Amino acid sequence: MNNASGARILVIDDEPQIRKLLKVTLQAHQYEHYECVDGEEGIVQASIVHPDLIILDLGLPGISGMDVLRRIREWSQVPIIVLTAKDQEADKIAALDGGADDYVTKPFGMGELVARIRVALRHVAKTTDEPVLRFGSLVMDLALRQVELDGEQIKLTPTEYEMLKVLASNAGKIITQRQLLQQVWGAHHHESDSHYLRVYVGHLRKKLKEDPTRPTFIQTEPGIGYRFLLQDEI
C-alpha cells in the first residue's frame, strides 16, 4: 500500500468538470487515477481496480452516493472521502456514520482535498495490529492499558482510557459523536448524550496537557465529532 506517489485513487462523480479537475490534480501528484460517472459502475470498478482510496460524490444520479458507500463497506475498508454540495452537518454525519473516512464540501480547494487524501492514506499506512501506538511524546500501550506522556505514565479512568483508545486507534479519521458514544458507552447511547463527550474530552485534554484552542492531539469537528491528529498534521 503506497501512501504517496503511485497510490491508486478511484473518483466516482457525475460532473465532467469535477472529474477533469481531479484527474489533472491527482496525476500532477503522481497518483494513479481512475474514474466512473455513476454509482453502479463505481462499485464494479472498486472491486476490479482495488483502489488505495476512493473519492465519492454523494449527489450521484441513479443509485445514491450513500448507497454506494454502504455497499462498498460491506466488503472493503478502503479509505473513502465523500464530496457533497450540501454544507449540512446531517449529510456529513450520515456519511461518516455510514463508513466514510472524511468529507469535503463543494466548492472545495484542490490543496485541501490533496491534504485530506494524504492524511487518509497515512491513516491506513499506520493501521497495524501493533499494540503500542506512538504519537510524538504520547505512547499508548493497548496490551497493558497504559498511557505515557513525555515518559511519565498518566492516570486515566476506564472511560477516559476507552475514549482515548477509540480516538487514537483511528488517528487521522473523524469519529462522529454517535460513533464515539456507542463505542465507549454502548449502543443505547445517542447524540442527545453528547454532553458526556464534552466533559470527558475536557478531562483528556487536561491530562494530555494540551491547549484546546491549539490542539496537539484531539481536534474538535464542530457539530460532528472529533479527530485524533496524526502528528504531521499539526
TrEMBL record:
Residues 8-121 form the Response regulatory domain. The modification 4-aspartylphosphate is found at D57. InterPro entries: CheY-like_superfamily, OmpR/PhoB-type_DNA-bd, Sig_transdc_resp-reg_receiver, WalR-like, WH-like_DNA-bd_sf. Residues 130-230 form the OmpR/PhoB-type domain. Residues 130-230 bind DNA. The keyword GTP-binding does not apply. GO terms for molecular function: DNA binding. PANTHER family: KDP OPERON TRANSCRIPTIONAL REGULATORY PROTEIN KDPE, REGULATOR OF RPOS. This is DNA-binding response regulator. It comes from Paenibacillus silvae.
